[in-house]
Inverse folding.
């Protein structure tokens, strides 16, 4: 189906094609006459075109005021001529002049059929007529050919010499090409372009001549690298150089390749990089809804934080450097904002992963790669928004661990890594706040990096890491660092897996009750009317249950 630049012209073409048969030849001739007259740089109103072709003045103000650039109008007029001819039974005998088909016209000017096609693209009017053999073919009237060739004598002569290159001319082109490569290390495309300007030949003619020489005489090839496939090391080097900002033209000259081949290598490496990338997401059934884009992304793609003035922000501690104090100017996320951002973040990665799985290494599409990379960039923007809103939490927790071998900045850097991992692992659909999940992840990470003296575990006798982390979390952090209520709820949820006696012993022994200090096994035994050894057995059994419950969470947070 032919494509018109103007929708108004496309509609007009359909109307004229369905009109009276006796008028169709007039429409075609009028379209050609107008195409000869128009100035490519001038604009023409549609009313003028309609009146010229049909003698009818349009009544629609909206369409009548529509204007077309002359160059676009000429292309649409040539398309209209073919379109109308396809719906009319016009014969070559209907014209009182010589009519050529493509082979006959090519023979007349001693050019190839491709050259005739290039002339058509440059404005040579064509029709589709029925020839004496009964077949419909593209046709050119003598008057159309005379109009097109007038003033183009040099172009026509150069095209006519296309197939008449002598052996001496070919040898001269090869010598010039060899000198250019030796002097400036030019690529094939650059050599062909310069020699085309010098000789008046087509660029493709020069390129074909050089390639033919290299294939017939590989020992004397001007571009020997063109005869074999590119190695993996060269591909990786080209891709690294491209990412560093080195121009494609420079790479083409260095590797004796065309610009197109360099782009193909870059796209191949981009595709391989995406195929090797792990694009994990926390899946949600909403992602597969038919209207998921509208439901999750909505009309607005604005994910920038609210203005600080919209919230009453806390004052930054005076002992922090300027960089860290600036974090307190970023507003915290509300529960709804947090849920929306995490849902967007995981949905965008879900879309990117689906597209990534459709990549075909044998047929790489640049548009597909751009879509995936654009989605990954969007996901990264959302992730950074979440991280910025929670960096204050990292600082608050890190300040509690200052005093050991690590400085505050080292602790913050370590905590930021834990925060980023937590963003990847958090499931918003469970209904918990991210601050609770992130606090636990950051504290568990610090527990492995701070000194034993700072952790103060001496008064714990069991050595079970899971419960020690919970107890230390409850005793070492106040409400300014984390949300104690939410952390308390998380601990209670875990302890709910135990019996009442087991729960009472663990809470009492490890001091998990904020209102009471830790108790010895003997004290707990007297309170429960049990022996000390029996209390120890119950505690061991309870700790084993908790290890089974907490180990998956531990693995998730530390991954």
């Amino acid at each position: 189906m032919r494509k018109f630049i103007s929708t108004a012209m496309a509609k007009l073409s359909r109307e004229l094609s369905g009109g009276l048969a006796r008028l169709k030849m007039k429409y075609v001739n009028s379209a050609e006459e107008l195409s000869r007259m128009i100035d490519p740089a001038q604009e023409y109103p549609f009313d003028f075109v309609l009146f010229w072709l049909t003698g009818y003045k349009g009544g629609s103000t909206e369409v009548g005021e529509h204007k077309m650039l002359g160059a676009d109008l000429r292309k649409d007029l040539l398309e209209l001529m073919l379109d109308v001819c396809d719906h009319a039974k016009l014969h070559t005998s209907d014209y009182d002049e010589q009519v050529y088909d493509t082979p006959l016209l090519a023979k007349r000017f001693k050019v190839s059929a491709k050259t005739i096609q290039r002339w058509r693209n440059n404005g040579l009017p064509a029709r589709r007529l029925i020839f004496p053999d009964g077949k419909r073919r593209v046709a050119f009237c003598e008057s159309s050919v005379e109009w097109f060739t007038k003033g183009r004598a040099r172009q026509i002569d150069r095209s006519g010499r296309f197939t008449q290159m002598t052996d001496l001319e070919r040898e001269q082109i090869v010598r010039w090409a060899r000198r250019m490569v030796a002097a400036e290390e030019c690529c094939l495309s650059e050599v062909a372009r310069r020699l085309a300007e010098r000789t008046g030949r087509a660029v493709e003619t020069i390129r074909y001549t050089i390639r033919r020489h290299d294939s017939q005489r590989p020992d004397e090839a001007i571009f020997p690298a063109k005869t074999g496939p590119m190695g993996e090391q060269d591909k990786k080097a080209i891709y690294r150089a491209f990412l560093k900002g080195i121009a494609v033209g420079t790479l083409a000259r260095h590797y004796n390749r065309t610009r197109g081949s360099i782009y193909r290598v870059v796209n191949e490496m981009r595709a391989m990089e995406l195929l090797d990338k792990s694009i994990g997401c926390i899946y949600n059934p909403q992602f597969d809804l038919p209207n998921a884009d509208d439901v999750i992304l909505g009309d607005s793609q604005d994910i920038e934080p609210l203005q600080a003035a919209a919230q009453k922000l806390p004052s930054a501690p005076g002992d922090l450097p300027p960089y860290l104090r600036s974090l307190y100017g970023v507003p915290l996320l509300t529960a709804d904002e947090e849920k929306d951002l995490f849902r967007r973040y995981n949905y965008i990665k879900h879309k990117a992963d689906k597209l990534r799985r459709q990549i075909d290494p044998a047929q790489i599409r640049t548009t597909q790669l751009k879509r995936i990379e654009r989605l990954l960039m969007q996901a990264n923007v959302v992730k950074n928004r979440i991280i910025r809103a929670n960096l204050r939490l990292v600082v608050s927790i890190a300040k509690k661990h200052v005093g050991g071998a690590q400085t505050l900045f080292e602790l913050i850097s370590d905590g930021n890594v834990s925060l980023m991992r937590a963003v990847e692992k958090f499931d918003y659909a469970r209904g918990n706040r991210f601050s609770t999940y992130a606090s636990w992840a950051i504290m568990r990470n610090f527990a492995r990096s701070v000194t034993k003296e700072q952790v103060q575990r001496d008064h714990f006798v069991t050595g079970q890491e899971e419960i020690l982390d919970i107890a230390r979390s409850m005793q070492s952090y106040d409400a300014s660092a984390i949300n104690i209520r939410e952390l308390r709820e998380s601990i209670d949820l875990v302890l709910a897996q135990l019996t009442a006696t087991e729960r009472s012993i663990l809470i009492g022994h490890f001091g998990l009750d904020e209102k009471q200090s830790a108790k010895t096994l003997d004290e707990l035994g007297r309170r429960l009317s049990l022996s000390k050894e029996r209390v120890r057995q119950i505690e061991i059994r309870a700790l084993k249950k908790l290890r089974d419950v907490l180990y998956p969470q531990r693995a998730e947070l530390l991954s």
Notes: The two ends are 55 Å apart (CA to CA). Residues 366-399 form the longest helix (34 residues).
